[in-house]
Amino acid sequence: xxxxxxxxxxxxxxxEALFRNSLTTLGVAVGVASLxxxxxxxxGLQQLASSRLTKSGLFxxxxxxxxxxxxxxxxxxxTQQGDTRLLxxxxxxxxxxxxxxIEVFPQVRFFSExxxxxxxxxxxxxxxxxxxxxxGAFDGMKGNFFTGESADEAILQVExxxxxxxxxxxxxxxxxxIRYAExxxxxxxxxxxxxxxxxxxxxxxxxxxxxxxxxxxxYGNGRLLIPLSTALSLRATQVNDLRDAVRGGPAxxxxxxxxxxxxxxxxxxAIEEAVKxxxxxxxxxxxxxxxxxxxxSVFDLLLGIFxxxxxxxxxxxxxxxxxxxxxxxxxxxxxxxALGAADHDVKRLFFVEAGVMGLLGGFGGVFxxxxxxxxxxxxxxxxxxxQDLPSVEISSVPWWLVLGAISFAVLVSLxxxxxxxxxxxxxxxxxxxxxx
Length: 436
What we know:
Layout: H1 3-16, H2 18-55, E1 61-66, H3 89-96, E2 101-106, E3 109-116, E4 119-128, E5 142-143, E6 153-157, H4 158-164, E7 175-185, E8 193-208, E9 224-227, H5 228-234, H6 239-246, E10 258-262, H7 268-277, E11 280-283, H8 286-328, H9 330-338, H10 343-386, H11 399-416, H12 418-425, H13 429-434
Parallel strand pairs: 4-9, 6-8
Antiparallel strand pairs: 1-10, 1-11, 2-10, 3-4, 3-7, 5-8, 6-9, 7-8
Helix pairs in contact: 1-10, 2-8, 2-10, 2-11, 8-11, 8-12, 10-11, 10-12
């Protein structure tokens, strides 16, 4: 039997029992829809987490620290391999010349007394580079980001802003002053320095909900954020200054740590190795991302298993539909065999019918699954909007999920048609023609 004739016959048979076959196809579509909807949530959440972490600059950053001098000597005496090097401005410029490095900026944070409305508030001040504007932490902030690298401006973390005023939005545009201890090197070349109290006026230009200064980004737990160039120009005394003074270090300032941003996460390993060869400690968060990928892989697997349960139920409907078709079409099968149709032709006919139901159910299921994902995303964003939070995409249907779901539906349908097809092929043509 030719493929064209078999296809026409299969389509005609499906049309004769249109209502029952439609219900069976709908069952396949529901199963595929549940599978696609669950996997699209897993893919969407994984993409959301990865994009936020990548946008934050954690995956394309290398964090550099000075190695501890285990021999007990001051850092200025450590020149051989294995000893510490000074993490100063010279080292910063040297690291910045490495291939595929976008920028190198230091960690600048210090305690300060903030004066606002003639009231004192103790807090941590952190310097932030201009590139931090695009890391996602400032999405939906009240006010604006820094107008320049050396602007006398400040962004307040919302919890600190609440300490200054109950109406945090009213703080934007007002002025506060910070009192800090400035480091001034002594003129006797002894390596010591003096501490001079200073004060600086800053204009509040924004209030941010999250705490972008937390974590390994090099900002500590800053609740008052200022431009990095402004922070460096203050020469405020930091914790590592006291450490260097105790160790008898040089008069020029050093950094507690540096953050090196690479062009892409693929360049991080090479930069990390190069920094280590220069005599500094270096680490990145790519290893932590591997654990995150393992978690999402297991999460997607569990979602796929639960989503496949509905498709497994749909296979029973296909088996039932085709078995009933055998009973109704015994005479037709007998005529086909009497006209010379072989057993494999009868098998192929039922396989084509099962495959058509799986194919139609697969297309319909992908569409319904996409609709479910969009509905969940819409409902989530409505809730986030009421909470004054930015919208997110929690569902994603990539091309490989579409092709995989349709192929899986066809494969399951063909497997479900194995028994009915084998049973139809084994019918005795004489008994089939005598069947009424």
